[in-house]
Structures are given as structure tokens and as C-alpha cells.
Design brief:
Strand content: 5-15%
Structural class: alpha+beta
Strand order of the largest sheet: 2-1-5-4-3
Helix content: 40-55%
Low-confidence stretches: 1-12
Number of strands: 5
Radius of gyration: 22 Å
Order of helices and strands: HHHHHHEEHHHHHHEEEHH
Shape: elongated
Number of helices: 14
Length: about 300
């Protein structure tokens, strides 16, 4: 199954795909214990965390020299079959498998230019506006917030008051204290945001705005640096968020995310509460208060 992997040269201003591939494989290998994959554990005689390279190579059916080159970031000519074997050996999730493929074989994925302006279709904006009582927004690459409805403003803040470049989930979560108070499970929200950015880094490593965002957050936030270093990736289409709203108190909201059919870099996310619950009543109150709720209760401060 061995092929000769080649080095990858990145354009100026891009995230280093070779380093991303190397660190991703290294961190995935380090989290596996020998007993996880049916290998003997020699305890104190092991000098490295997780599996050794030779153990991983044996599980994947490739030579140690080949796997070593791949983990050093030389992955241009690796085949899909080899990547599948390595993904199985590393026990990767579907999202992690996709991320590995994006990093190792970028030319196999047709993508729109990373620098292209993200536009939300008019019909999708109309749909947002028609979703009365349902907080909803459209997010894009780099966790940018592209469009939202009145209820999203009432729950998450008056994004209209922010400069366009600040309408970004990563910036909000890591750089604005009010969002640390808004999300009761702030650590989980922060981890999710970083994982989504990692997925974007695999798909769009030549995006200078993504690279600049990662660089800025790495300088300004210790929590971001710590989470970015884990190289975790995930896709999360649904779940539950617990919030503490300054006007109506605690909220438990279920969310659903739907990828756009014509631009997989965009997703529509909606939130709803269990019928008859205190959270449902709180959303009803926010909807009845309208713009007053946004201005009085959760208006974002100016930069």
C-alpha cells in the first residue's frame, strides 16, 4: 500500500498544511492506548504517549518509513486507500477522516475560492425573517455570522451594532466577556467553535482571513491557544445549548444546523425550546418585547 509522498508548498499568508497534517496525525496517534487496538502494553517501558509510529504503521498496513514521512507532512501522493487504512487504525470519526483527507489530498476537493465574498441568498434571508419566535442565523466560513433574524438578536445580542468583521463566533466567544456569561457551558461552546475553525483550516488553508483570525486569537486568548493545539475537529448538526439571558434568565434551547445546498460553507442554525417549558415562555416574552428586548437586555458594546 506504500506510495512515495511528496512535500506540499503553501502560498504566502496560508496556514501551513504540512504542519497541520503532521500535528493532526501525531495528536490522533498520541490519544490511542495499545489496549485500545488490541496491542500489548509494556507500561513503564513506553517512552511516548499513545501508539508508537511502528505500531500504527503495522495496524494500517504500511511501512514505518512511509508512515513517518506522512506524519512529517509529506502527503501529496498518498492514495485514498492508504488514508482510509490510517483512519481506521487511528479510530477516526467521520469528521476527522474528512479532515485528514482535506489535509492530505486537497486537490481532490473542488472548493470555491476562499477569498470570495460570502453572500446569503435573498430567499434565505426572507426565510429567516419569516421564522417568528425562532432564533435563527446563517453562518459561513471562519465562523462568520452572515445573516440573522430579530429573535437571534434578542437572544444572542444586537449584531447589527457590531462592525462586520466582528460578527464572528470565534471573536465573540473568546474576546467578548458578555458571551462568557451568556453560555453556561462556555467551555463546550469554545471547543465547538475551535473545532469548526479546524475543519475550515483543512478545507481552506490558503484563506488569508482565516490565517489572520487564528493568529489574532492565538495572541489574545490563552484558552484559544490551548484548544487550537488539540487539533480536534467535529461536525455538529444538532444539540442543546444552555444560556443565561440578562432579561429572562436561564434558557435551555435545542439547535439544528442545516448546510446550504448550493454553498456547503454556509449553514442555517435554528433554536427552539421544549413546548410548555419555562424556556418556551421566555422566548415568547422576548418575541413580544421585540426590539426593546434587544436594546435593553443584550445590546453588544461598541468596539
Amino acid at each position: 500500500m506504500d506510495e512515495q509522498p511528496d512535500a506540499v508548498h503553501e502560498p504566502a499568508g496560508a496556514l501551513d498544511r504540512r504542519a497541520e497534517l503532521s500535528e493532526f496525525l501525531r495528536t490522533r496517534r498520541a490519544r490511542l492506548k495499545p489496549e485500545d487496538v488490541g496491542l500489548p502494553d509494556f507500561g513503564r517501558h513506553r517512552r511516548v504517549p499513545g501508539l508508537r509510529r511502528e505500531e500504527l504503521a503495522q495496524l494500517a498496513g504500511v511501512s514505518v518509513a512511509y508512515y513517518t514521512r506522512l506524519e512529517q507532512g509529506n502527503g501529496r501522493n498518498v492514495s485514498v486507500e492508504v488514508l482510509d487504512a490510517i483512519a481506521r487504525a487511528l479510530r477516526l470519526t467521520d469528521a476527522e477522516h474528512a479532515h485528514l483527507t482535506h489535509l492530505a489530498k486537497p486537490k481532490q476537493h473542488k472548493k470555491k475560492p476562499a477569498a470570495r465574498s460570502q453572500q446569503v441568498r435573498g430567499a434565505l434571508r426572507q426565510l429567516l425573517d419569516s421564522m417568528d419566535g425562532v432564533p435563527a442565523y446563517v453562518s459561513g466560513r471562519r465562523s462568520d455570522i452572515l445573516a440573522w433574524n430579530r429573535m437571534a438578536s434578542a437572544v444572542f445580542g444586537d449584531w447589527e451594532e457590531l462592525p462586520a468583521q466582528e460578527r464572528n463566533w470565534a471573536r465573540l466567544v473568546f474576546l467578548r466577556p458578555e458571551y462568557r456569561e451568556l453560555f453556561l457551558d462556555w467551555e463546550q461552546k469554545a471547543s465547538d467553535v475551535v473545532s469548526y475553525l479546524r475543519m475550515d483550516a483543512g478545507c481552506y488553508p490558503d484563506d488569508p482571513r482565516l490565517s489572520a483570525l487564528v493568529g489574532e486569537l492565538s495572541v489574545k486568548s490563552e484558552e484559544f491557544r490551548r484548544l487550537w493545539a488539540t487539533h480536534d475537529v467535529k461536525e455538529k448538526g444538532y444539540g442543546v445549548k444552555r444560556l443565561h439571558h440578562p432579561l429572562v434568565g436561564d434558557l435551555t434551547l435545542s439547535f439544528e444546523s442545516f448546510r446550504s445546498a448550493d454553498d456547503d460553507g454556509q449553514a442555517l442554525t435554528t433554536y427552539h425550546a421544549e413546548p410548555g417549558s419555562a424556556s418556551a415562555e421566555a422566548l415568547r416574552l422576548l418575541a413580544s418585547w421585540g426590539a426593546d428586548a434587544t436594546r435593553a437586555g443584550h445590546s453588544a458594546p461598541s468596539s
